[in-house]
Write a structure and sequence with these properties.
The complex is a heterotrimer of chains A (555), B (328) and C (375). Chain A is an alpha/beta fold. Chain A contains 21 helices and 20 strands. In chain A, strands 6-7-8-3-9-10 form a six-stranded mixed β-sheet, with helices on both faces. Classes of the chains: A alpha/beta (555), B mainly alpha (328), C alpha+beta (375).
Chain lengths: 555, 328, 375
C-alpha cells in the first residue's frame, strides 16, 4: 500500500463567462500523502478553492474540468482517475463523502437550516455504509462525542442555528469523518471563526488526523495557520502553482518571488513598523487628547460596552483588540456618536485646550466635533456609495461643511487623492472601477479631508489581502506623521496591532481587561484572557509551533 | 411554538374587529339609512309608511344613535346570535341567505388553491433547475400570459368557445336536476363535475405568479453552500434537490397562502358573476347594486374574515415547517 | 462583478459609468424587456393622442353599422393589367337580407374599393386639450364610407377607435393610481423604515392587514357607494383613489424594506459622519439607491391597477358610459349572445392583455437591472 492518497496532474478548470474564458485552475499538479497535511495557500482569486472543488467534481456552473488527471489511491491498492468520472455518475458519488470528504468555510450556510444536525449526519451513514436508522443514530452520537460536542445525545436533535460557530464547524467535521474517509479537504474551515475557536478546531482536525491516518488538504489564506499545521505547502497564484515543497523550506528558503513576497509581508506584521522605529520617542506626560470614562452601551438585554475607560494621547495610536462580540466596534462607534452611549463620559480636548464631553454634544457642536474626529470603515465596498464618483465621495465632507466648492473643491480632491497614492485623473470614476486596496485609500482620503485630529479606524485592513495590509498601515502612519494625527485602531489581528500601535487595550465581552504599551501587552501579558488570545494566534514560523501548548482561558 | 400560536391567535382579535368595523362603515357609506331605503322599497310596491312608523323603525334599529353604538349593536348581534340583520331586498334575515353561498365560495377557493399549488410547484422547480432551457422559456412566457389575462376575460372566452364551438352552456355549479335538490352524494359528485371549469379559470393567474415565486425561491436556494455540502456527501442530484433546496424553498411558498388567498377570493367573485355560480360573488354584486347593505356587509365581513383565517393558517403551517420560526 | 454587467463594454467607459448607464447596459440585454419597453412607449403615445390613431369618432353611433364585422385591409392594389402598387384599401360591406331567414346580414362588396389614406382627414379631435386637428394616422378616402378595422358594436360604434380612445383612460388610471399609491406608500413606508420603532410596528401591522384583505369586495362596496350621477372626471378620480386605498400597501412595503436595508449601509453612516444633513442623507445618498427599485415596483404595480379598473368597470361599478375605458368596452362582451354574433367585441380584452404583458416584461427587466452593483 502506497502512502499517496491523491495524485493530481496538470489539472485545468475553466469558467466560460460572457467576457471570455477564465482559467481558474491552470495546470496544477500535487499529491497528498496519507497522514500528512497539504496546505494550499494563496490570496483571493488564486484558484485554491476551485482546485479543491475540482477534486470532487463539484465546481459550480459554468466551471468545467478541461484537462488533467486526479488519481485516487484506494487502500486495496486499486486506483481511479476522478477526472474521468462524470460529475453525476454513481462512481464519483461513491467517492464523495465516503473516500474523500469536504468541509467548508461557512458552517452556518453550509448546513441545512431546516434539518437537524443528526438528520444530516445520519444521511451520510445510511447512504454510504447502509446502516439502519438506529445504528446510524447511535454512530452519530458517537461522532458528535468524538468531535467534543457537549451533550451529544440531545445535540443530535438540534438545528444549526442553535449552535455557535465553532460548534457548527465541529458538526461539519463529524459529518465529514462519518465514513472514515482517506482524504479530508478543508476549504478555509477556520476563516469565519475567532482565533481562539480556530485554535480549537485546528487542534481537533490534527487529533482526528492522527487517529484516523487520513490525508488532509487544507485550503487557507492565513500563513500562520499554514506554519502551524502543514507538512507540505502548495502556493497558488493566478491559477498556477507558484511554488510547492515542505513547510520549512517554504517559510525559510522560499524560491519563488511571489512566495517570498507573501512570507515577507506576513513576517513584517510580526514586528514594529519601520516608520515607528524611526520616530523620536514620544514626549512623556502630554495632556490626553481623549479620555473615555466608564463608557457603557446596551443593546436591549446585551451590554455591548461595559464600563470602559481609556486614554488616547496626542499623536499616538491606541489599538483596541478583541474577538467578535467583544464590543470593540460598538465602542469605536460610540466615540463618533454613531451610537448613543447609555452611560459614561468621553472628554475630548480641543486644539484651543478646552474640553468637551463627546457624549453630551449635539447639533452644531457635534457636527464640529465630527470634523475633528473621523472614521475609516472596515468594508471598502459598503462604505463607499456606489452611485457617487470618487471625487464626490472624497469631496462630500468639504462640500457639506461649506469648506470648499467648485474649482477649489476639485483642486483639494485632487490633492487628497495624490496624498493617499491615487491618480487624480481617476476622480470621475465610480468606486466599482477600483480594487479593494484602492477603495480603502479613497476611504482614507475622505477621512483626512477635513484635517482631523483623531481617526477611528475600524478593522481598516481586515478585508484586504495580506500583501496589501502593510502598505495600507504604512500609508496611515505616514499620514499620521504628516498631519499630526492620533488613531484609535480597532482590530482582531494582533499582528496588525503590533505593527501599528503604540499602546493597546484588550477587550473581552464588552470590558477592557488589560491596557498597556504594545510591547508589554504582546510580550508579557498580565491578564489570562490576553495570554489565551495571544497564544492562540498561529505564528508564521513552522519551527515555533505552539497551538498545542497554548494557554486556555476559562472565563 | 405554543407561545407563537397564542400570540398569533391574539393578533387575530384586533384584525377581526378592524374587518368588522370596515364592513360596518361600508354599510353606512351610501346616502340615507336602512329605513329610508326600506321605505323606498315599500313605496315601490305601493305601500306607504307614515312618519311615526319610520321613527319607530329607526328606534327599533337604533338608527338615531351614534355610529359606534350602532356598530356595537350590529357586531354583538352577530357574535351572540349570529344575526347579521335583515335583507330588505329578499325580506329575509341575512343569515338565512349567506351560509350556503359562503360554503360554496370556500369550496371553490380551497379547490383552486390546491390546484394552483399542484400545477405551480413542479413547473416552478423545473424552471429553476433547467434555467434558460426551452421548457423554462415556454413556461415563463405562459406565466406572463397568465398574469396578463383578467380572470373574467378568460371566463368569457371559455363561455364563448363552449357556446359557439361546442354548443354547450357553461356556468353554474350544479346540473338542472340538482340545483334545488337537498344535499346528497349525487349532488356532491355533480358539484365536483362542474367545479373544475371555474377552478381552472381561477387557477390561471395564481399559478402564473406562483411559478415565478417558486422559480425565484428555488434559484436562490440552488446556489446556497448547503447544496454543495449535500453534493459533496455523495447524494444523487435528484435526492439532494428534493431533500434540501426544495425543502427550504417550500417555506416561502407556504407563506404565499397569505396573499394568494385574497387574490383568489377576489378573482372568484368576478368569475362567479360571469359564470353565474351560486357563490358569494353574484349575490354580493346584486346587493351592492340595490344597496341592500346588511347583506353586502355580511358578505364583506365573512369574505375578509375568510382571508384573515387563511393568513393565520399559512403562518401556522410556516411555523410547523420552519424550525427557525418555531424555535425562535 | 462589473465586467459581467458591462459585457463587452470597454473598461474605461465602465469606470466612469453612472448607475443609470450600468442599468441601461444590463437592461438592454433583456430582449423581452426591450420589447416591453417599445410596446409600452407606443401604448402611452396612443393614450396621449388617441384621436390621431382613431378612424371614426368613438362615440358616434351608426344604426346602419350595428355589429358591422371587421374589414380586412388589402395592402397591394393590383390593377386589371396585372401591374400593382402599394395602396392599402378595403372592400366596403353592405347590408343584404338573407333570403331564407330574412335577417339582415353584412356582405363584403368585392366590386368596390375604399382607400385607406395615411395621414388623411377625418373627424376633428383635440390634442391634449391644446389644439384641434382632423388629421389621423389612417382615414377613409371616402368620408361617406366609414371603415371598421375591428368591426362595430351593438350601436354601430367603431371598436378600433373606441379601443384607441379607451387606452387614454385605462392606461392613465394605472399611472395616476400608482402615483397616488406611491405618495401614500413612500410617506408611510419611509416613516416606517427610516424611524423604525413604534411607528414602524403600527404601520407594519396596517400593511399586513391590508394585504390580507381581498380587494375586489372592498372596491365593489366603496364603488357602490359612489353616486352614479357624478361627472365623469370626478368619478375617474374617485375610482383611482379607491384603487390606491389598498394599492399603497405593497409599495409601502417595498419602500420600507429598501429604507431599512439602506439605513444600515456603511456609506449612509459615512455620510452622517461627513456632516451631511438628514435631508441630504435621504435625497443625495439614499434616494438614488432606491429610485431604480421604486421605478421597477411602479412599473409592476401599473398592470394591477389596469386590471382592477377593467374588472370594476366590467362589473358596472367602475367608470360609467359614456366614459370610454377598456373595462367599459368589455361590458359589451358581457352577454353570451353579443359575443356569439360579434366575437370582435373581445378586442378590448386583447388590448388589456397586451398592455399588461408589456408592462410586466418591462418591469421584470427593470427589476433585474435595478441593482447593477450586486450581481
Amino acid at each position: 500500500m502506497t502512502d499517496t492518497v491523491l495524485e493530481v496532474r496538470n489539472l485545468a478548470t475553466q469558467f466560460a463567462t460572457r467576457t471570455g474564458l477564465v482559467r481558474a485552475v491552470d495546470g496544477v499538479s500535487f499529491s497528498v500523502q496519507r497522514g500528512k497535511t497539504l496546505c494550499v495557500v494563496g490570496e483571493s482569486g488564486s484558484g485554491k478553492s476551485v482546485t479543491a472543488r475540482s477534486i470532487l467534481q463539484i465546481v459550480d456552473a459554468p466551471g468545467r474540468i478541461v484537462a488533467g488527471e486526479m488519481i485516487l489511491h484506494r487502500p486495496d491498492g486499486s486506483t481511479v482517475d476522478l477526472a474521468q468520472l462524470h460529475p453525476r455518475s454513481r462512481e464519483i458519488r461513491a467517492v464523495r463523502g465516503r473516500e474523500i470528504a469536504m468541509i467548508f468555510q461557512e458552517p452556518m450556510s453550509s448546513l441545512s437550516p431546516v434539518h437537524t444536525v443528526g438528520e444530516q449526519i445520519i444521511e451520510v451513514l445510511r447512504l454510504h455504509l447502509g446502516m439502519d436508522k438506529l445504528a446510524a443514530r447511535k454512530r452519530t452520537i458517537e461522532l458528535l462525542n468524538h468531535v467534543e460536542i457537549p451533550r451529544a445525545e440531545t445535540a443530535i436533535d438540534r438545528y444549526t442555528f442553535e449552535f455557535s460557530g465553532g460548534m457548527r464547524q465541529r458538526v461539519m467535521i463529524a459529518m465529514a469523518l462519518a465514513c472514515n474517509p482517506s482524504l479530508l479537504i478543508a476549504d478555509e474551515p477556520t476563516t469565519a471563526l475567532d482565533v481562539t475557536t480556530q485554535a480549537e478546531v485546528l487542534d481537533l482536525i490534527k487529533r482526528l488526523q492522527a487517529e484516523h491516518g487520513m490525508g488532509v488538504m487544507f485550503i487557507t489564506h492565513d500563513m500562520g495557520v499554514v506554519a502551524e499545521i502543514a507538512d507540505d505547502v502548495l502556493v497558488m497564484y493566478h491559477g498556477k502553482v507558484a511554488e510547492q515543497g515542505p513547510v520549512d523550506a517554504i517559510f525559510h528558503a522560499p524560491q519563488d518571488d511571489y512566495t517570498r513576497m507573501l512570507i515577507s509581508s506576513v513576517v513584517k506584521l510580526e514586528q514594529k513598523a519601520d516608520i515607528r522605529l524611526a520616530r523620536p520617542p514620544a514626549p512623556g506626560a502630554a495632556q490626553p487628547l481623549l479620555e473615555v470614562r466608564n463608557l457603557t452601551m446596551r443593546f436591549g438585554p446585551l451590554t455591548a460596552v461595559d464600563d470602559v475607560s481609556l486614554i488616547v494621547r496626542p499623536g499616538e495610536t491606541l489599538g483596541i483588540v478583541g474577538e467578535s462580540g467583544s464590543g470593540k466596534t460598538t465602542m469605536g462607534r460610540c466615540l463618533l456618536r454613531v451610537y448613543q452611549p447609555d452611560a459614561g463620559a468621553m472628554a475630548y480636548r480641543r486644539a484651543d485646550g478646552s474640553v468637551v464631553d463627546l457624549a453630551e454634544a449635539s447639533g452644531d457642536s457635534l457636527k464640529r466635533l465630527r470634523r475633528e474626529i473621523r472614521m475609516i470603515f472596515q468594508d471598502p465596498v459598503g462604505s463607499l456609495n456606489p452611485r457617487m464618483t470618487v471625487a464626490q465621495v472624497i469631496g462630500e465632507p468639504l462640500l457639506v461643511n461649506g469648506i470648499a466648492k467648485g474649482r477649489d473643491l476639485d483642486d483639494r480632491v485632487a490633492g487628497l487623492m495624490r496624498q493617499v497614492g491615487l491618480n487624480p485623473d481617476w476622480r470621475e470614476r465610480y468606486p466599482h472601477a477600483f480594487s479593494g486596496g484602492q477603495r480603502q485609500r479613497i476611504g482614507i482620503a475622505r477621512a483626512i479631508s477635513l484635517n482631523p485630529r483623531l481617526i477611528v479606524a475600524d478593522e481598516a485592513t481586515s478585508a484586504l489581502d495580506v500583501s496589501l495590509r502593510a502598505q495600507m498601515l504604512d500609508l496611515m502612519m505616514q499620514l499620521q506623521d504628516e498631519l499630526g494625527l492620533s488613531y484609535v485602531f480597532i482590530s482582531h489581528d494582533i499582528g496588525v496591532i503590533r505593527y501599528m500601535c503604540d499602546r493597546v487595550a484588550v477587550m473581552y465581552r464588552g470590558r477592557v481587561v488589560e491596557t498597556g504599551s504594545t510591547d508589554q501587552v504582546c510580550d508579557a501579558p498580565s491578564h489570562d484572557y490576553t495570554k489565551a488570545l495571544l497564544s492562540a494566534i498561529p505564528r508564521p514560523d513552522p519551527r515555533h509551533r505552539r497551538i498545542h501548548t497554548r494557554f486556555r482561558y476559562a472565563g | 411554538m405554543l407561545r407563537f400560536l397564542v400570540i398569533r391567535l391574539v393578533w387575530m382579535i384586533p384584525s377581526l374587529f378592524a374587518v368588522s368595523f370596515l364592513a360596518f362603515v361600508l354599510i353606512q357609506l351610501p346616502p340615507g339609512d336602512y329605513v329610508t331605503t326600506y321605505i323606498a322599497t315599500l313605496a315601490a310596491s305601493n305601500e306607504v309608511v307614515d312618519q311615526n312608523t319610520a321613527a319607530d323603525l329607526r328606534n327599533r334599529f337604533g338608527l338615531d344613535q351614534p355610529l359606534l353604538i350602532q356598530y356595537a349593536k350590529w357586531i354583538s348581534g352577530i357574535l351572540i346570535a349570529g344575526d347579521f340583520g335583515l335583507s330588505f331586498e329578499w325580506q329575509q334575515p341575512v343569515s338565512e341567505l349567506i351560509w350556503e353561498r359562503m360554503a360554496l365560495t370556500l369550496v371553490l377557493t380551497v379547490s383552486t388553491l390546491i390546484a394552483t399549488w399542484a400545477i405551480a410547484l413542479p413547473i416552478g422547480v423545473y424552471s429553476a433547475v433547467k434555467k434558460y432551457s426551452v421548457g423554462d422559456y415556454i413556461f415563463t412566457f405562459f406565466s406572463f400570459l397568465g398574469l396578463a389575462i383578467p380572470s373574467f376575460l378568460l371566463a368569457l372566452v371559455l363561455m364563448y368557445v363552449a357556446a359557439v364551438q361546442l354548443g354547450q352552456e357553461v356556468g353554474g355549479l350544479f346540473s338542472q336536476d340538482y340545483v334545488n335538490a337537498p344535499w346528497s352524494f349525487g349532488k356532491v359528485l355533480d358539484l365536483i363535475s362542474h367545479l373544475w371549469i371555474p377552478v381552472i379559470i381561477l387557477a390561471v393567474s395564481g399559478t402564473a405568479s406562483l411559478i415565478r415565486v417558486m422559480r425565484a425561491n428555488m434559484l436562490d436556494e440552488l446556489n446556497k453552500p448547503y447544496v454543495t455540502t449535500a453534493r459533496a456527501k455523495g447524494l444523487s442530484e435528484f435526492r439532494l434537490l428534493v431533500k434540501y433546496p426544495l425543502r427550504v424553498a417550500l417555506n416561502p411558498f407556504i407563506s404565499t397562502i397569505a396573499w394568494l388567498l385574497p387574490n383568489l377570493v377576489s378573482g372568484s367573485i368576478i368569475v362567479a358573476i360571469v359564470l353565474s355560480l351560486p357563490t358569494a360573488g353574484p349575490m354580493l354584486l346584486q346587493s351592492l347594486m340595490s344597496q341592500d347593505m346588511y347583506l353586502a356587509g355580511a358578505f364583506v365581513l365573512l369574505i375578509c374574515a375568510l382571508t384573515l383565517v387563511g393568513a393565520l393558517v399559512s403562518d401556522i403551517l410556516l411555523a410547523l415547517a420552519d424550525p427557525r420560526i418555531r424555535l425562535e | 462583478m462589473t465586467d459581467l454587467v458591462a459585457g463587452s463594454i470597454d473598461a474605461k467607459r465602465v469606470a466612469v459609468a453612472s448607475q443609470w448607464q450600468l442599468m441601461w447596459w444590463a437592461f438592454r440585454r433583456h430582449h423581452l424587456a426591450m420589447l416591453g419597453l417599445v410596446v409600452v412607449v407606443i401604448l402611452y403615445v396612443i393614450a396621449a393622442v388617441p384621436g390621431f390613431f382613431a378612424i371614426n369618432d368613438p362615440s358616434r353611433q351608426n344604426a346602419r353599422a350595428a355589429f358591422h364585422p371587421p374589414q380586412q385591409v388589402h395592402w397591394i392594389d393590383t390593377a386589371e393589367d396585372g401591374s400593382w402598387r402599394f395602396s392599402p384599401y378595403l372592400h366596403p360591406y353592405r347590408l343584404v337580407r338573407n333570403p331564407q331567414t330574412l335577417a339582415a346580414e353584412y356582405q363584403e362588396d368585392r366590386t368596390r374599393k375604399v382607400g385607406l389614406t395615411l395621414f388623411g382627414r377625418g373627424y376633428t379631435y383635440s390634442v391634449l386639450g391644446l389644439f384641434e386637428t382632423d388629421i389621423h394616422l389612417f382615414a377613409s378616402s371616402d368620408p361617406r364610407q366609414p371603415l371598421y378595422l375591428l368591426g362595430a358594436d351593438r350601436l354601430g360604434r367603431c371598436v378600433w377607435s373606441r379601443i384607441m380612445q379607451g387606452a387614454q383612460i385605462s392606461l392613465s388610471v394605472g399611472l395616476v393610481g400608482v402615483i397616488l399609491s406611491l405618495s401614500i406608500g413612500v410617506v408611510l413606508g419611509g416613516v416606517s423604515g427610516y424611524y423604525g420603532g413604534k411607528a414602524d410596528f403600527v404601520i407594519q401591522r396596517v400593511i399586513e392587514f391590508i394585504l390580507s384583505l381581498p380587494t375586489i369586495p372592498i372596491w365593489l362596496a366603496l364603488a357602490a357607494a359612489l353616486p352614479q350621477d357624478w361627472p365623469a372626471v370626478t368619478q375617474y378620480f374617485m375610482i383611482t383613489l379607491i384603487l390606491s386605498l389598498t394599492g399603497w400597501a405593497q409599495l409601502a412595503r417595498v419602500v420600507r424594506g429598501r429604507f431599512l436595508s439602506l439605513r444600515t449601509e456603511e456609506f449612509v453612516t459615512a455620510a452622517r459622519l461627513d456632516g451631511a444633513s438628514e435631508a441630504r442623507i435621504i435625497f443625495r445618498h439614499m434616494l438614488p439607491s432606491f429610485m431604480s427599485h421604486i421605478i421597477a415596483s411602479i412599473t409592476l404595480a401599473i398592470p394591477a391597477m389596469i386590471l382592477a379598473e377593467t374588472s370594476l368597470s366590467f362589473l358596472g361599478l367602475g367608470l360609467q358610459p359614456p366614459t370610454i375605458s377598456w373595462g367599459v368596452l368589455l361590458r359589451e362582451a358581457q352577454n353570451i349572445r353579443s359575443i356569439a354574433t360579434a366575437p370582435w367585441l373581445f378586442a378590448p380584452g386583447v388590448a388589456v392583455v397586451v398592455a399588461v404583458m408589456a408592462l410586466n416584461f418591462l418591469g421584470d427587466g427593470l427589476r433585474d437591472a435595478a441593482d447593477p452593483y450586486n450581481k
